[in-house]
Amino acid sequence: MAVVRLMNFSHILTPTSTSTTTTEEKPTLVEAVRKYKTNELIDFLRKEEDLVLDEDDLEIFRKQKVTGREFFKMTKQDFIENGMMWGPATRLVDFIKEIKEKKLRAYSSYKTQKDFEGVMRKFGIDGKNIKKIPSFSPETEKIEDNDEDLQYCITDIKRRMDNLGPAEGSSEALRCDYITTILHNSLHIAKRITKKRISLEPEFEVIDDKATGRVYITIKKVLDNLDEELICITEGKQSELAKGFMQNIMQLDSSYYTNKRKRIASEAFDDEFDYLYGIVSTAMDWHFIMYTPEKVYRVKDDYHVPLTENVLENDTELRRDVKKVMEVIVGLLKDRVNVDDSPAIKKARTEKYIKKRN
User: Which domain of life is it from (predicted)?
Assistant: First the structure.
């Protein structure tokens, strides 16, 4: 089976695997960190409490666009010349040396489980029963049956079905193809309606038939200064739906603080309330999450897309169900890119969706 190259969204959630033949082999921490982009590196360093780095220290990495590859080449003098104090510069150099000498393995499943449990406790969520997550009802966006992007999406799905086969029981890569087809066309409709710049970025890692990985797709609002603000994260899962929910919530929690840190000081509000959307999908089943810093909610209704070879003969159900899913996705994106930046307005918006359902 061909190997598909994919990259993890965050080291916090799961270790990266460089092996295409076994789940036992994991990269060293050096190998894992070397692949980090700037924001991933900053998040990694922030998690290391012993480093005692403040936001000014971390901002140096962002300003200089330091990635994991450059990180291991930096000296104490490099850090100091770029504005870092002697203390944190010394701790960072010692940290780099410790990682290299001990050749630490990438994060273990035990630490990942602890992370899971911590986030779940924060929101009072039972990780084994997602039905206990309180519900919300988002505003969907009506899509006409003859919408050109809907028609293109259906055609593309049928072509993939004819060439690649059904999604159920398929590889991670194939299901990702179906997921991104629906997301791309939903995004195109949202951009057409809102006239806003929105980007979609798949973030993947190595997948094979023995080591099933995870699919992350981030959707971002492009700001006037060309910076990006995360507004939605999609988690692709083949099984263990409850775990997919937990992983998505962890990513949303991390992304919320990433967005918060990106706010320019002059634009910051006393109340930093914000909200993000999450999507958990097997390609056939679609679930939607609203994250707030206070609580997490899910859309209670079920959304299912029949991705079987039967659609090649009769696509009536496919059209109906894909349209329903896209109407939710477009509604979420339209809401999040159009909402006023005022925390009070954002909070009122989420409260309306919660009350509307309950």
Answer: Eukaryota
**Gap between the Cα atoms of 250 and 278, Å rounded:** 10
- C-alpha distances out from residue 77 to 10, 20, 87, 91, 101, Å: 29, 39, 12, 13, 21
For residue 280, the surrounding DSSP H or E stretch is strand 276-281
Question: In which residue are the tokens 């940290």 written?
Answer: 95
pLDDT tens digit string along 120-157?
A: 777 777 666 777 889 999 999 999 999 999 999 999 99
Phi then psi dihedrals of residue 283, to 5 deg: 85, -40
Residue 315 contacts residue 299 (beta carbons within 8 Å): no
Whole-prediction pTM value? 0.66
Cβ–Cβ < 8 Å for 298, 135: yes
Residue 186: CB atoms within 10 Å: 28
Cα pseudo-dihedral 221, 224, 226, 228, rounded to 10: -30
What size, in residues, is the chain? Answer: 358
Taken in order of first residue, the domains within the chain and their CATH numbers are: 29-104 (1.10.150.50), 132-357 (no CATH)
> What are 199's strand-pairing partners?
220
Angle of the 38-47 helix axis to the 241-262 helix axis, nearest 10? 100
271 contact partners, CB below 8 Å, separation of at least 6? 343, 344, 347
